[in-house]
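question for whoever is on the cluster today: can someone run the full assembly for these? three chains, 294 residues total. i dont have access anymore since they changed the login thing
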Amino acid sequence: MNLQLQVARPYDFARSVRDYGWIALAPVRWLDELNALRRVERLDTGKVVVLHVTGHEAAEAVTLRIDVQTNGKLTRREQEEIRRKVRWMLKLDEDLSEFYQACASDAALWEKLKTGRGRLLRSPTLFEDVVKTICTTNTTWSQTKGMVERIVRFLGDPFPGDPELHAFPTPEQILAGEALFKDKIRLGYRNDYVLQLAREVVEKGRDLEALKTSGLPAAEMRRELKRIKGIGDYAASTLLMSLGYYDSIAVDTEVRALVVKKYFNGHKPTDKEIAAVYDHWGKWKYLAYWFDSA
DNA sequence: TTCCAGGGGTAGA
DNA sequence: TCTACCCATGGA
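^ ran it for u. tokens below:
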């Protein structure tokens, strides 16, 4: 069966879902031959489905088609859950019009964004984004992909129609798989961070997902995120971006490399000088940086 | 072997 | 608030 979503233009589906590295992390994949985003998803009922999302241009809007592979019928509630999760993953409900306006006065940036980019991919749950972000710290991208792939393969529910495909595990499933972390999943010292977070969610009722709609001011949200063991300044900024707060940039090795090369040819700037490059973008700093480097 | 990758926790100042 | 040191893992 398939479900549909309408998105106001401008919206560049194929570019948007690939603009952020999350497109390469299980259980998400981009299928070139179909121009589709594929995601294996475990629904609240426990049913595992495979989603193929494709974009279709029309005059006034873009239609997203979600083809759902499933065993048996989907209830109305399950269909709504899928729509809700896809809307969240693709950030379809964020209003970027103010950002686009600001970009219009920057020719180079506007050239990249005018087709409707800027909605960077995220995960249906904040829990998944936190785990993935922990897997990006102090390691290489290829190792990050391996870590996430192993978490999904060893702990996530398989799709009945193809046991090679797995969903992202719930906190409960991560906790239940504790014994596999050291020898199979191998996140190094990150094992303890992921397990501790899962334990807090499962056993202490820590409600990460409530943060998504809390509307907390950025500073308080950052404080909340940094209460998670393993989340420091870089990871908090990454997660703030995921949650739709774009007013801070984590000056990490990537940002440093881009800014030094592009704006400071020669002398070595401090992190404050680097951050100041994007100051005039106000609440849109992260997106301005992101597409400056894109 | 040694270094280090889109860092973070901790102890000690 | 700042610094030094440690942290598993695997590729270069």
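summary bc i know u wont read the tokens: Chain A has a mean pLDDT of 96. The longest helix of chain A spans residues 141-155.
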